[in-house]
Design brief:
Strand content: 25-35%
Oligomer: single chain
Shape: elongated
Helix content: 10-25%
Number of strands: 28
Distance between the termini: 56 Å
Strand order of the largest sheet: 1-28-27-26
Amino acid sequence: TTKLILLDSLLQETNMQLKRPKKQPEDFDVEEDSDAGSDVEAEDSEQNDVDSDEDLDDEEVPDVGQEAGKSVKQVENPLFEGSDDSDESDFDEDSDDSDDSDDDDDDGDEDTKQDEVKKENIDDEDDLISALKNAREKKVRDSPPDIKLKQSATDISFHPEESILTVANIQGELSVFKISNEENSAVKKLKIHKGGIRCVEYSIDGDKIISGGKDKTIKVLDSETWSLLMKDQFTHQSPLYSLAPLEHGAVSGDEDGTVKLWDFRTKKSVMTSKRFEEFVSSFHTNEEKKYIVAASGEGTIQSFDLRMNKADVQSEVYDSELNALTAVREGTKLVAGSGEGVLYMFNQGQYGYHSDQYAGHPDSINDLLAVTDNVVLTGCEDGTIRALHLYPHRFIGQVGHHDGDMPVEKMDVNSSGNTVASIGHDNRVKFWNIGYLENMEYEQKRKPLVSNKNTAPKKRKLNEAVAREGEHQLPSSGRINKKDFFKGFE
């Protein structure tokens, strides 16, 4: 029965197509001259009357299987399901209204789905365009731009109150810069030493700039008038290596291990102590508690009593040089960074032997900087600045990097405590915004790789490079963590 119905439907369709009147040329839109007038309109009306009579005659001719004068309900042809032919729909006069409404609903649903897909594509395109536009837009800086230097920098120091940074170089020059996130501007450049400058610091009140050089002298410069206050009055027998400011003077150390305490009021040395056999690398001062601690290249630290102006307690000798000192936990813990990449912690007043240690750096720690009461930054030989949380010991991540993995030599933090400056061997002063360290949650992170010294140099270098890539990157580093790379595409 189904086959007969299909066959009958096909025959009806064929006959209907054969009976359709041929389309006349007059059916197409043609531009007419304005002068054609009523003659053209008359011809069109006559022709239309003829066409309409022919259409009526055609409709009265019965199809196969159909009696004359009776309308037959059209059987749905499954072979033409979904056809877009408008003529077919005109002939389906006896179709059920409910079927029409269902078809309309289906068409509406399909249109809605297509609109939704188009909308999603537009939204995706908008997100991509937005991302590209954001990438091209100039971002607001959260730290000052780099300072490019012609000569290698040896030390840096921030003004204790203003956004001013002083940079010392190997030519004996001091360069003073005004720092801002938008741009850095040069304020002054002076040559005050005959050889290279090894160390520079602002006085506690910021009125003076104190520097020590290879010419064995300490220079004191007025930070307002740029004039030398005391000429060639503070000298060592060997080139200077480090110094630190005090309330009324400074303490300095030279290459031969001599420490001198200076009083700027009397313009004299009030203490000279030769307790080290090698260079004095760093100082930590605490005038409130009346003591100073110095670190040396021979691997020891030495405390000095400011009440008596004499040496106090010296530690035992460690396996490598101790390059830097800082204090945490309200000054009750002294931290020393070693050439082996180990941090040693000493209790206040007990400097004979360390109370705790923290290994994990792949190479030498050249400088230390306490940025909160429990977080320190380490400037490392591999060109990386790392952040560490002490008590409990946690490696937080990498704060920044110097180009070409050049060693980080010196660091300093500004008066507000949210910007750190660092120098290496790449002739740049780089700046890092560390404001996030104050409030971040310190999760357990993987410690840096400790290389086996017996490993072949090439293999060890490769292992260290791979390990650095796996270290956690903090917001200031400018590098993306592997796990965060596809985070936005989920």
